[in-house]
Amino acid sequence: MECERFEELTSLHLSGELTTEQDEEYNRHRSGCRTCAALLNEQIRADHLLRTSLAEVPVQAETLQERVRRKIDGPAWRGLLPGWRALQVACVAATLLIVGIVVTGHLQSAPEEVLLESAAADHVEDAIERLPKAGWVTNSGEAEKLAERVLGDGRPVRLFAPSGYTLARARVCNLEGKAQAWLHLIYEQGGREVSFFVRSATVSSATAGQLALADEPRGRTVGRYAAAGARRHGLGIVFVGAVTRAESIEMVRSAATSIS
After folding, report:
1. Residue 31: what are its φ and ψ, rounded to 5°?
2. How far is CA 187 from CA 45, 175, 193, 197, 220, in A?
3. Is the model's pLDDT at 108 over the cut of 60?
4. Which residue among 115, 160, 164, 169 is least packed, with the fewest CB closer than 10 Å?
5. Which residues face 172 on adjacent strands?
6. Number of C-alpha atoms within 13 angstroms, CB side, residue 209?
7. What whole-number distance in Å separates Cα of residue 165 and Cα of residue 173?
8. What would the pLDDT profile of 15-26 be if each residue is shown by its tens digit?
9. Is the pTM here over 0.90, yes or no?
10. Using an 8 Å Cβ cutoff, are 219 and 112 in contact?
11. CA distances from 49 to 5, 99, 111, 122, 252 (A)
């Protein structure tokens, strides 16, 4: 696959619209091309930043559009500002510049931050929005077999379950700019779902985000969710849920200490 073709298929890959064969070819090219892998990472981060920003600030779009339209078309603007259309263009350009600066700053974030943010985005897609995706298993036995295959150990499926929670479903997902495969475990209690993401450095090479994790769990707030991660016994462990930051760190610590 040529890099130009890779760019054309990126949006379809992110929306899950590629066929299995196309997606496999896409992933093969990404694995062997650092430039395209970085391009995909940037697009994922920019998309996540935009969606998170919009979700955090509710806007009455129709009302706002009408108010802006009245201001632009009103006679007062035309009378007082002969160059009002030039002003419109300048305002739009300034807004795009600010957004570009913000996005660029986020794209240069540390690997651990990229990992936690992409895990939070995946949690929203899978546990909150419930976007249709292939590969889910809902039986604990099947989930342990999946964990055996991708982690070399089926125990995390059982040991990582928070107190009072049961496994809802599991699948292999792509984090860190959709470039790295992690096992996604979703646990449920009374309609409330939390996520664990796990990757083994002994079965697959450690990722940049996994290597950036510390033995002692660290966490941060991503939008409306808390995300925390740690690296223990060759495993990268990330938790995401609608809990406090301190609770997310404790969730990871409990999971990490459960593996001996």
Report:
1. -65, -30
2. 26, 19, 6, 11, 20
3. no
4. 164
5. 183
6. 28
7. 21
8. 677 787 888 888
9. no
10. no
11. 25, 10, 16, 13, 25
